[in-house]
């Protein structure tokens, strides 16, 4: 019987799942569903993860294929040894839940977890913008700021499993408070909610109306249409990111930075000041590097989780395919 693998990305808003068949050497369509909350971790895991996975497993069983392993990309902090959720700020009902044990008992296959930024880095390295590069950093700027590092073709997680936490590196002294307990962190300056709040606060000072109903996409649209306040906010964010990326390049000599997350929807309004700052930062040293946008979008985490479990069960070999952008279905 031929085997297949499943990769799952568990976010606060959506769950995404993708599979890989060894017999066809193909990554299937991405299935996406809204995350349903019940304030009960067992029910939420069943309704959001298991129902979706069961549907894929049923389809594959009709083709005489058997599930061999599950990889998960998680926005939560988890215990790497036990597989229990330590804390998930966006859904505290999962705190302490033994997720790995639950899934292993249900499906009787190996289950591996990875941080969402690390999983996305793996996804882009496997099948996206970073394919063919031995070293890269995937930087995501959305609700938070995260980073996954691929060094010498391998995911680098550090001694404690949490390398790449650039969102909690202090950028300015006595800066805004961050959720981590420090102040002046990169995340407190450039994350999506922070940029949105800055825009709302500044527009309220201008006595603008209805700004409290806006979301980040609206601010991106306003910036693209010439709103000076919105453009200046993204410019400042680009400068902060350029300085941080410059420091990363000097430290690790990485040749590729891949940018993902909702804030990158600002495009050149963010990227131009970022690249200008980066050029100034590195003008006295020779570095062959570039900054590009992620190719897989929101699908990178699930594809990375898929590669995680595949490599674990196949002596470190990766899935050698490109993933077609936009191959997604809703369930």
Task: Output the radius of gyration.
Answer: 20 Å
Instruction: Count the E strands.
Output: 14
Percent strand equals 15-25%
SSE-based structural type: alpha/beta
Give the overall shape, derived from the CA principal axes: globular
Helix content: 25-40%
Tally of individual helices = 9
Q: How would you name the CATH homologous superfamily of the largest domain?
A: ATPase, nucleotide binding domain
Task: Provide the fold topology.
Blueprint: E1 2-10, E2 14-21, E3 26-27, E4 30-34, H1 41-62, E5 65-74, E6 77-78, E7 85-87, H2 99-107, E8 111-115, H3 116-127, E9 136-141, E10 145-151, E11 154-156, H4 187-190, H5 192-205, H6 216-224, H7 228-252, E12 256-260, H8 268-282, E13 290-293, H9 300-313, E14 328-330
Structural summary, described in words:
With 331 residues, the protein is α/β, with parallel strands linked by helices. It contains nine helices and 14 strands. Strands 1, 2, 3, 4, 5, 8 and 14 form a seven-stranded mixed sheet that branches. The longest helix is centred in the last third of the chain and has 25 residues, at 228-252. The relative contact order is 0.17. The model has no long low-confidence stretch (mean pLDDT 89).
Summarize this structure as a short list of keywords or feature phrases.
globular, 9 helices, ROK, single chain, 331 residues, five-stranded mixed sheet, Glucokinase, Nucleotidyltransferase, domain 5, ATPase_NBD, alpha/beta, seven-stranded mixed sheet
